[in-house]
Amino acid sequence: KNEVEQSPQNLTAQEGEFITINCSYSVGISALHWLQQHPGGGIVSLFMLSSGKKKHGRLIATINIQEKHSSLHITASHPRDSAVYICAAPFYNTDKLIFGTGTRLQVFP
Amino acid sequence: DAGITQSPRHKVTETGTPVTLRCHQTENHRYMYWYRQDPGHGLRLIHYSYGVKDTDKGEVSDGYSVSRSKTEDFLLTLESATSSQTSVYFCAISISADTQYFGPGTRLTVL
After folding, report:
1. Using an 8 Å Cβ cutoff, are B74 and B7 in contact?
2. In contact, B106 and B88? CB cutoff 8 Å
3. Is the pLDDT of residue A24 over 80?
4. CB A48 to CB B40 under 8 A?
5. How confident is the model at residue B98 (pLDDT cuts 50, 70, 90)?
6. What is the mean pLDDT of residues A61-66?
7. Cβ(A107)–Cβ(A14) below 8 Å
8. Is the pLDDT at B17 greater than 60, yes or no?
9. Which residues 6+ apart lie within 8 Å of A106 measured at CB?
């Protein structure tokens, strides 16, 4: 069983839809990362959060440490949001990360 | 992009040949990482370094070695490449406890 699991694996949406991607983890962590991998392969760090909620533009990330669950929301989705979204948790409070397998999002006009 | 480059970006090689991938950073960050990315798997840590000549193994280190003789360079070597090492390889640096920056990736094909 992966220590970091994401759902869904694939997601398609129409432009303007509200998107939710979920991440659950089985290890005790102090923080969780959300990353975006563009179709060209580049990986960008979006958020690191340890509690509550963070917002950046149309992206919102939430975490519930007790339930070991985090969500990434995209409001008013746009085709340029099409990418793979990856969550990652530090391995036993080190700076080494364990990654989920990613959620592939396609937003159609 | 925190000044991370990887070379080569693409390589095709034959089974049994040695291969070295280079990760170069321009900002003197201490921690550097090598990952591989394969379909159906998340990014998996191969090796990491916490300073010059200080390296340690990750979860999938078999068949790989690393070296870091300068702060800015972290080399990943496949001593004798196998087809199972066909993958996309990413280098990353920690710029803080919160954030890792990733290089552009190297696509390696072992025939």
Report:
1. no
2. yes
3. yes
4. no
5. low
6. 92
7. yes
8. yes
9. A10, A11, A12, A13, A82
